[in-house]
Amino acid sequence: MKLLSASVIALAAGAAVAQEVPQASNQWYSDAQSTLQGMLSRQQNTNRALNVILFVADGNGVASNYATRMFTGQEEGGYGDDYVQPQEAFPNLALIKTYTTNGLTPDSAPTAAAFNSGVKAKNDTINMIDSVAVDDCEAAAANPVTLLSELMSEGGRSVGIVSTARLTHATPAAVYARSANRDWEEDTLIPEGCDQLDIASQLVEQMNAGVIDLALGGGRQNFIPAGTMDAEGEEGHRGDGRNLPDEIAGDSGAYVQTQEEFDAIDTATVEAPVLGLFEPSHMLYEADRSGEPSLSEMTQAAIEVLSRNEEGYYLMVEAGRVDHALHDGNLARAVRDGRAFAEAIALADELTDDADTLIVVTADHDHGLQFNGYCGRGSDILGLCMEVNPQGVEHTDEANLAADGKPYTVAGFMNGPGSILTPDAEAAEQAGAGHAVAVYVNADGSVLVEPADPDEAAAAEYSGTRPVAAEEEATDVEYLQQALVPMSSETHSGTDVALYAKGPWAHLFDGTIEQNVIFHVMLHAVTADQ
């Protein structure tokens, strides 16, 4: 019989001492012991929450969150993998199931609505119950839901929205609107015979009713009439002649369009409603941002305005352009917007008190971003997958080669504009024959001509080989990661997303839960008995 060592016997008895194992002096071991002690010292916070801040990075699944962690850590001079983003230090974590009632793969409308109505519904609908079909105006009107923002307002709290997308886009719209189709952002898009208000008009109603006190983001085109120019000389899209910012701001509120106007807001005295529309459509990517406030600046302004209400507030902050960069197959822009998102979280955490503010950080859905192996530590998350160094820590500086003899990047997409497959010459010839085609740039910079008509696209034969990517090319901000399935826009995926939380009742976020449960935890946090 083999005799057990004293340390193993002690472990079995539940009394193991760290010094009894030879690896106790190892840094990884001691760091883990410190982490354990932090876990053991945690206390559940069952205070009634005064404030709730919901951070949503649109499309920021576990994969893109990982890419942002790597990018930020490497930008700060480290390997990246051991870097900790602000939300990743939050004590509570759950996995969120994002499917919808008719979609294995969700879109942002019903997923954002799940946060704000507490129910799941069909793709392309905003704050509907699941029996309402897309475009069914009559059923939508007959089956209303009450929104978290309305419950918060009825309870005396202020409500704010911050987004780098259009304020009428799916995720911010879910805070205040109900729509049988997410695309009905302004009046010319409403079908004839449908009595539903367009989404921009619904924001007017909710701000004038005192439900929404502050809204900062993009989308001016949906708020001003055709023939009227905005601060950048861009024409509005509305067909009803209404200038909605004038209706919202009135005599007492504030309406701003530029960085200078935003900077002039006195957050200590400005009266609601506060409306900021900084772009005709979506705000700029962080990599390209100029002349408009950052996500952190808007978040700080929102907190300073809303926190003047002693009854508390509900604030939703969206990094909307993470999703758009991923649709473009452009990881370099996605991670820069992801880093800006993390900076806004850190600032909000600094400006608030864990004792009375519940902060929830999550995504509405994931994307088809994936990672290759086997890459050595320090391989640039945007660059080539370098060989593991068997004698050291950092990679060998030699790129791994695939079976085709070519290097490959750390990251890639299952589908998208960076596809290595292109249509045959016949499809390209259709451009000269008057056929409709879609044109976009391939991963190697070549032009991809694709039949725009679905039948023509189906008839085209696709083929191709992987282009050779160099490190300098792959890490350029304009680079599109290589993808497999050719599509003009990369798709969402149905995989679970992470949720991080801290503050009152954050411990209820645990395990793997349905997305609509997030609403119920947030509502419980502000209504729980002391």
Explain the overall architecture.
The chain is α/β, with parallel strands linked by helices. Helices cover 28% and strands 17% of the residues. The protein is built from 17 helices and 19 strands. A ten-stranded mixed sheet has the order 5-6-4-3-7-1-8-18-2-19, with helices on both faces. Helix 3 crosses helix 13, helix 4 runs parallel beside helix 17 and helix 12 runs antiparallel to helix 13. The protein is globular and about 70 Å long. The protein starts with 5 loop residues before the first helix and ends with a helix. The N terminus is likely disordered.
Summarize the biggest pleated sheet: 10 strands, mixed
Strand content: 15-25%
Instruction: Tell the overall outline.
Output: globular
Question: How many helical stretches?
Answer: 17
Q: Kindly state the mean pLDDT as a whole number?
A: 92
Rg, Å, rounded = 25 Å
What is the structural class?
alpha/beta
Going across the biggest sheet, name each strand in turn.
5-6-4-3-7-1-8-18-2-19
Short description:
This protein has about 525 residues and is of the alpha/beta class. It is about 30% helix and about 15% strand.
Features:
single chain, 530 residues, alpha/beta, 10-stranded mixed β-sheet, 3-stranded mixed β-sheet, globular, disordered N terminus
